[in-house]
Amino acid sequence: MKLFLREHLSFVIFSLLQSFFILFVCYLYMLEQKLTPTPGIFAYTIAVSFLLHTLFLAARYLRQRENYEILSLDNHDLDLSIKTFSNSPLFEAFQKTIHKQYHLYINELQKLRKEANDHSLFINQWAHQMKTPLSVIDLLLQNYEVETETDREFVNSMHEELERLQHGLELMLYSERMKQFTHDFRVKRVSLKLIVHDVVHHYKRVFIRNRIYPTVDIAQAIFVETDEKWLKFALSQIVTNAIKYSKGENKKIIISAVQQQNQVALTIKDFGVGIPKQDIGRVFEPFFTGINGRRFAESTGMGLYLVKQIFDRLGHGITISSEEGKGTKVTITFYNVTKM
């Protein structure tokens, strides 16, 4: 009803002005003919005009009421809505135009989705194909005979660059998998200590090369409900960040877990450069590198963003606290945990 009145407001105003103009002309004519104007004639004319316009608008509204109701609703099914317009050449023409535009939109959307799926498939296949030559290079480096200090520096440098490539491939691969997250995760009860040990062992050479010593303090009895693969990837991102910003002599990374009632808090604490206050609130934003990212020139700005997305979808919490020059602490909270 409101939409109908808004559309016909200009018509109502025009009709009123027209009626008063006709009455004014009639009044002038009667004065010219030296006739005495009577209020009853004017009142009768106004009443008849008002009645006729009201009947016209009422009939028009009743005839097109369904169309106006459809346009007033917050429809989620556009195709269903445009098929119900009727009883008006204007609405029927509007229906045909919208119907054509809707199908053009659907076709374009399907085309874009196909292109996105093809691109995602290519990225996944390419990433998996790149893992094979990287594994071969890693094997060759392990069997490389180190005879001089120069050879050792060469091997260490190659290992470091190889790990960067592997880390970059994993980041790209999992960022693509995030698009199909609902089809690529399986929640089950897992040992938190075993998962953390697997992550630490995977980066054993990185710890050694950067002279960083990890300490794991997690009770064997702590189990959490999560997806093992996604949790390992998220922990890998946090651990590699802790290593990257903690390079130096005798630095430590402490990984501990505490269970309280139905929650488990997993903490990864480093003693590196820390995060500046102006950056701490933006570390989960995509492509945000901050001051440290520009200083170390190794940050993509996607690692912690993906970590936050993963934990949000798994139903875990994550917080970061840091003090510049003293280190950073990342806390992951697992909810609804039952004791063994």
Account of the protein in words:
This protein has helices at 2-32, 39-72, 78-82, 89-142, 149-177, 192-202, 204-209, 228-244, 277-280, 290-296, 303-314, and strands spanning 188-191, 212-217, 223-226, 251-260, 263-270, 317-323, 327-334. The protein is elongated, with a radius of gyration of 36 Å. It has eleven helices and seven strands. The strands form two sheets. The protein has a five-stranded mixed sheet with strand order 2-4-5-7-6. A two-stranded antiparallel ribbon has the order 1-3. By secondary structure, it is an alpha+beta fold. A hairpin with a 3-residue loop joins strand 6 (317-323) and strand 7. The longest helix is centred in the middle third of the chain and has 54 residues, at 89-142. Helix content is 62%, strand content 14%. The protein starts with a helix and ends in a 6-residue tail after the last strand. It folds into two domains: 2-103, no CATH class; 190-334, Histidine kinase-like ATPase, C-terminal domain (Heat Shock Protein 90, 2-Layer Sandwich).
